[in-house]
Amino acid sequence: MTSARRTTAVALLLGLGAAGCSTSGGTAAPGPAPLPAPRPFQGVTHYPGSQLAPLHAAEEDLVAACMKRRGFTYRPQPLPTGNHLADVNPYGLLSVAQAVNDGYGITSTTLSMGPPADANAAEGTDKRWTDALLGTPAHRVNLAMPMRREFFYQADSCVSDAKSRLFGPDYYKLYNTFQVLGDAVVDKVRTDRRYLAAQDSWRTCMKDAGATVKAFGDPQTAVDRQLRQAGRDQAKLHAVAGVELKLSRADAHCQASTGLTTVVSAAQTDAEKTIGAGYEDELAALRSMREKALATAAHR
């Protein structure tokens, strides 16, 4: 799809969102900013877009410096734009403001996101260059994770060198440890009786709004399926955008009416007490690394 067609499609989506807002009776009265939606371990492994961009730029500069020390040229790559799904909550929590503005972000991401041109395409055909950038199997480091999981990286890569210089030498281990623990927390919350009771109430609310669903996430799955079926047909894409906005507004309203955010917060706190037990020092260390890297990236 050409950039012009993507721009037109996104404009259609945004226009539809504005129309939906006006026909629903206007926006809510100004009030205090809502608290961030709960994420495992206070979102220690999540970086919103405002943080991700400077971190990415700092890492790319460090990769370039590493490659230069090894006698190679690496041109820093910009962060891909147009991804409206990067901040999706792991529990599917959705605010009314999000729903009105961009639905779930599915259609707009599909229409607007595209990788930037590879500034290093020519160099990428050189095995010595790629080995310096990505490392070699001979220097593979295996890290044991909780839940009998395992993570590995190539210690001789400029990518890992940049990560270690920006965050600290133990970042790979700590970050992936809490990715695993965070996934386990989310899984436990989703089986919590309070969460399942809220889902029952939400399902009834959605049915009253004209949407037949069984579980949280079903509306997003329906939008994904219709989007694949639409292909590149502009009229069909516009129709899917309308479906997404309608479903997401109902979803957000029903989540609010069932108190889902409060339920998730309580269930998550309980899950973290058991799953995160014994990892307090590691969590503190990861938070410290995170703050150090953010401060470094902000003052480049």
Description:
This protein has twelve helices and two strands. The chain is mainly α and 300 residues long. The chain has a two-stranded antiparallel sheet with strand order 1-2. Helix 7 crosses helix 12 and helix 8 (193-208) packs across helix 10 (234-257). The radius of gyration is 22 Å and the shape is globular.
Beta-strand portion reads under 5%
**Rg from C-alpha positions?**
22 Å
SSE order = HHHHHEEHHHHHHH
Which segments are poorly predicted (pLDDT under 50) over 5 or more consecutive residues? Answer: 1-32
Given the C-alpha coordinates, what overall shape results?
globular
Q: Total helix count? A: 12
Q: Helix/strand/pairing class, anyone?
A: mainly alpha
Which strands sit side by side, in order, in the main sheet? 1-2
Count of extended strands: 2
Q: Roughly what percent helix?
A: 55-70%
Report the sheet with the most strands, covering strand number, pairing sense and barrel closure.
2 strands, antiparallel
Straight-line N-to-C gap: 36 Å
Overall pLDDT:
89
What is the element layout, followed by pairings?
Layout (H helix, E strand, L loop, with lengths): L2 H21 L25 H21 L26 H7 L3 H7 L14 H8 L5 E5 L5 E5 L3 H10 L3 H20 L2 H16 L9 H13 L3 H24 L2 H16 L4 H19 L2
Antiparallel strand pairs: 1-2
Helix pairs in contact: 1-4, 1-10, 2-6, 2-12, 3-10, 7-11, 7-12, 8-10, 8-11, 9-10
Characteristic key phrases:
300 residues; mainly alpha; two-stranded antiparallel ribbon; disordered N terminus
Task: Write a concise synopsis of the structure shown.
Helices cover 61% and strands 3% of the residues. It has 300 residues and is mainly alpha-helical.
